[in-house]
Amino acid sequence: MHDLIVIGGGPAGLAAALSAWENGIRDIVIVERDKELGGILNQCIHNGFGLHYFKEELTGPEYASRFIDMLNDTSVKVKLDTMVLELTPDKELHIVSSASGYEILKAKAVILAMGCRERTRGAIGIPGTRPSGIFTAGAAQRYVNMEGYLVGKKVVILGSGDIGLIMARRLTLEGAEVLACVEIMPYPGGLTRNIVQCLQDFNIPLYLSHTITKIHGSPRVEGVTIAKVDGQRKPVPGTEQYLECDTVLLSVGLIPENELSRKAGIEIDRRTGGPVVYENLETSVEGIFACGNVVHVHDLVDYVTNESLKAGKSAAEYILNFNDPTGNSVSPEHSDISDIRLVNGVGVSYTVPQLIRIPKNLMVNSSLSISDPDIELSDQLQDVEVFFRVNRKFGRSRIGVSLAGNELARFRRERLAPGEMEKIRLPKSLLMKCLQLGLSEIEIYAVDEMTGQASADNANETKITAVSPRTVPAGSKSSDKIAKVSSAAGGSI
Amino acid sequence: MKKTYDVAIIGCGIVGAAMAYELSKYELDVVVVEKENDVCCGATKANSAIIHAGFDPLPGTLMAKLNVMGSRMAKEISQALDVPYKQIGSLVLAFDEDDLKTLDVLYERGLLNSVPGLRLLDRDEVLQMEPEISPNVAGALYAPTAGIINPWEYGIALAETAVRNGVELRLSSEVLSIGQDDENWRITTKSGDVHARYIVNAAGVNSDIIHNMTAEPSFSIRPSKGEYFLLDKSEGSRVKHVIFQCPSKTTKGVLVSPTVHGNLIVGPNAVPSERYDVSNTSDGLDYVRSAAMRSVPSISFRDNIRNFAGIRANSDNDDFIIGISAPRFLDLAGIKSPGLTAAPAIAVYAAELLQNEGLALSRKSDWIGTRKKVRFSELSVEEKNRLISENPAYGRVICRCETVTEGEIIDALHSPIPARSIDGVKRRTGSGMGRCQGGFCGPRILEIMSRELGIDPSEIIQDREGSYILTGQTKKERC
Fold first, then answer.
1. Which of residues A250, A284, A312 is at a domain's end?
2. Domain of residue A450, residue span
3. In angstroms, what CA-CA distances link A79 with A28, A33, A82, A99, A287?
4. Same domain for A189 and A266?
5. Sign of the CA dihedral B140, B143, B149, B154?
6. CB proximity A213 to B under 8 Å
7. N or C: which end of chain A has fewer CB within 10 A?
8. Are A39 and A8 in contact, with CB atoms under 8 Å apart?
9. Does A99 touch chain B (CB under 8 A)?
10. CB contact under 8 A, B478 and A125
11. Going edge to edge, which strands form the sheet with A247-250?
12. What is the total count of domains within chain A?
């Protein structure tokens, strides 16, 4: 039996394995289906990676190689060109490879780091013909950046996810004409910096509140009809226009790859598409942890790294406990543990983690008041970072955290958008309060301070122009401010 | 010296393939000419994938006789030729009094057509068999012999077996005209002339055009488009049987069924169309979606992985059009639903008609009637290990959604009718059929094809001729 098996050798798996190693685990195996480590970073040859984690700007392959180099100094074993066919709840892995055939491995702990896949045409049901020349943005990226081939000469991009935006720039630089980026929502799906650097800098129009209503041509794409959509995302008759093109790129969302997780009986959150996880990234199956895009789709690889380091550390703690026959189990079923569920309030589409475990023995001597910032709390309890996305665009707003309807913490933001993952730090005093009150739910929600409502969809944004750079300063993001609970507020990374 | 074939079959969809398979049993020189670059590219690859029990066609018609016979044959042939087939039974749902009356009619018809095992079920029985069916259901007709099949693999297996038994296949050979040299037919195709004593017209949606090249016009094809959803395997066990709706005056109803691959198929509508218009429309898809929800309200359409459409070769005739329409010229035309089911029976019947027309049928002694292919994901651990030790390519999974290995893809590229496009590989191995729709495996299959076939990646096509994928190298040429 191995101590730890990591499924996936992309950024999440690499960081998780490294972190487990640094936390004392020696028998670690990474199983990777591709012929090399690095995952999708290998085809992300643009820069912009590592600004948070390495404090310098790297390309995708450079970012990956930093971790691969670090891994080379350990004795972590890597099985390349190896596919995991099945994972069982008791942590048996059925794997297959040309080199070793069909094998069954067993581990004390498993970390899921399988990443995500792209939504396809079928998932959104675009009418029209079914010619060649329709690519998911990531598949096109592979052809262009790794195989060295162009996928088309006149391109329309549906969806404004980050890969689509990056490919708009890439294809332009490779000599193709990118006619438009068409986004069904009234706001872009990707990061503001990518809207600016990949579309605006190249004068590629962004059509918000528009979609492709029909694909034309056979056997190759010959054009698309695009149309404006109404508030229900239904095409508005009379607004159609035809764009002649030979290629359509789809950047319409990413879906965590959890087929293995489902078969292992791991509880999946319908909202994220990933496993329900505790604050230590453990899933509903004891000893199976998850990190990176398999849990929820991240904006930046730096955030994936941070999450994965945490998962690696948690798995290491689990394994060290596992080795100690007198060690306390960290099983979620354990009666000494209390689960707090994070509830998505208005304006919030999901949170990660979904659950927080708190040892019940902290209840003793806990006549604490949450309003007292100087109170000393047990070391066993830590602040919990919560990642989430809002479900619409907000102007100046606050993120509220409430217990039983009482707002106990608030975090100010100048703006919020679904395309940008948000983070708040729940101070341990708040968790303590939750326990004291005997509550098992904490609600997180977003409120637009200008309207007082959890909605700021702006009809003006449906016009056919790129977002002006003046309205959204690239890269500016306000730091967290906490109104009531001040002591433990975390800043942005 | 020019070669004169005994029989030329025009079209290699399910009917042409079954005809070739049937004739390959005899000492004959047979050629199949096909317009597309692969077999089974028309209605055969885009339909409901159902082997119908046979209670629907009017008693006494060719359709009724050949449906019931074909249904039985499908079971045997799919086993012999290693084609995925499951006899899962079908239910025709009734929602009101009129529907219940229709069920009685269908039941009586089924008895007259000699469909085995038919049973009328009451509401409780239906809901017990299929808990996801709408509580509004009033009853159902159960046909235990109905089944599901992989339709294009069925066609490919029939055609491959024919080829292995000596039948010649000419792809990319659209028929331009038919004339006569001496006593024989001269078929002019895009790839040259073909001479044959007999012609079998199995040209599907174009069978009237082919007919009119040799005989007086006597029927016309009225193409009818049907649109579908194919849902993720997470929806694949939503129902366990083929779920039909009662045909009414206005519609034949929309079906919901598991597929042999474990997905859920939902469709079709029926709209008059052009011969080659297999595009999807938002109206069509909306109709199919809401009609299907009437049978099974819980279907999660957000788990849709692909839409497609197929063209029925409907005609102005209610029955199949099967007969000698010119000397030594046999029509197998207007083969609409249940054509997939009836195909092997049509071929047996057609061989008799050819014999009556003077074609001598003498059985081959060395006919090969079996086929076996590697389906890695279905093998036992021991079989997998044995296979990988013999050929390591079977240990490399290329299509992660459907677990298709490099070995299986290489097999498809070197099979009796070798795949020559990404979709050709897909039809033979299932690669790219899953939830990522080839996003991950597409580039890798292209790479394998380029290597195995010794051609540049930019020459690899997605499906039909002209469906190029890449437009050139990034660093060599500029757009």
1. A250
2. 337-459
3. 11, 8, 6, 10, 21
4. no
5. negative
6. yes
7. N
8. yes
9. yes
10. no
11. A134-136, A247-250, A154-158, A177-182, A206-207
12. 3
Would the CB atoms of A125 and B475 count as touching at under 8 Å? Answer: no
How far apart (Å, rounded) are the C-alpha atoms in residues A10 and A34? 10
A-B CB pairs within 8 A amount to 151
Contact: A127, B281; criterion CB under 8 Å: yes
| A147 CB within 8 Å of a chain B CB | yes
Nearest-Cα distance to chain B for A102, in Å, is 6
* Dihedral (CA of B277, B280, B286, B290) sign: positive
Burial of A419 (0-12, 13-18, 19+ CB in 10 A): buried
Per-residue pLDDT of chain A in tens (493 residues, 90 and over written 9)? 999 999 999 999 999 999 999 999 999 999 999 999 999 999 999 999 999 999 999 999 999 999 999 999 999 999 999 999 999 999 999 999 999 999 999 999 999 999 999 999 998 999 999 999 999 999 999 999 999 999 999 999 999 999 999 999 999 999 999 999 999 999 998 999 999 999 999 999 999 999 999 999 999 999 999 999 999 999 999 999 999 999 999 999 999 999 999 999 999 999 999 999 999 999 999 999 999 999 999 999 999 999 999 999 999 999 998 755 544 444 444 456 778 999 999 999 999 999 999 876 655 444 444 444 444 455 567 899 999 999 999 999 999 999 999 999 999 999 999 988 999 999 988 988 888 888 899 999 999 988 766 543 443 333 333 333 333 333 333 333 333 332 333 332 2
A149 & A244 share domain: yes
Q: CA of A221 to nearest chain B CA: how many angstroms apart?
A: 9
Q: What angle do CA B236, B242, B245 make, to 5 degrees?
A: 120
The count of C-alpha atoms lying within 13 angstroms of the C-alpha of A109, restricted to the half-sphere facing its C-beta, is 33
SS (H, E, C) A355-371: EEEEEHHHHCCCCCCCC
Q: Are residues A141 and A245 in the same domain?
A: yes
Q: Which of A150, A234, A251 to mutate to test the interface with B (most CBs of B within 10 A)?
A: A150
Contact A102 B304 (CB under 8 A): no
- Kindly give, in sequence order, each residue whose CB lies less than 8 Å from that of residue A266, ignoring residues fewer than 6 positions away: A112, A258, A275, A283, A284, A285, A288, A290
Q: What is the ipTM of this complex?
A: 0.94
Residues paired with residue A289 on neighbouring β-strands, in sequence order: A111, A282
Residue A269 covered by a domain = yes
User: Does the distance separating the beta carbons of B468 and A132 come in below 8 Å?
Assistant: yes
A7, A290 Cβ separation under 8 angstroms = no
Residues of chain A with C-beta less than 8 angstroms from the C-beta of B461: 132, 219
Asked whether residue A13 falls in the same domain as residue A112, the answer is yes
Question: In angstroms, what CA-CA distances link B93 with A145, A223, A268, B102?
Answer: 53, 42, 34, 10
Distance from CA of B280 to the nearest CA of A (A): 5
pLDDT, tens only, A193-242: 999 999 999 999 999 999 999 999 999 999 999 999 999 999 999 999 99
Question: Do residue A226 and residue A278 come from a single domain?
Answer: no
Of A127, A129, A151, Cβ closest to residue B471: A151
Q: What is the CATH number of the domain that holds A173?
A: 3.50.50.60
Instruction: Decide if B332 contacts B19 (C-beta within 8 A).
Output: yes
Q: Same domain for A98 and A210?
A: no
- Whether residue A486 is contained in a domain is answered as no
- Look at residues A204, A226, A250 and tell me which one is the last residue of a structural domain: A250
B305-350 pLDDT per residue, tens: 999 999 999 999 999 999 999 999 999 999 999 999 999 999 999 9
Q: Check CB contact under 8 Å for A127 and B381.
A: no
Q: Record the tokens describing residue B106, joined without a space.
A: 């269908």
Residues of B in contact with A235 (CB under 8 A): 282
Tell me the H-state helices in A188-299: 192-194, 259-263
Provide the whole-model pTM: 0.91
- Residue A16 and residue A95 share a domain: yes
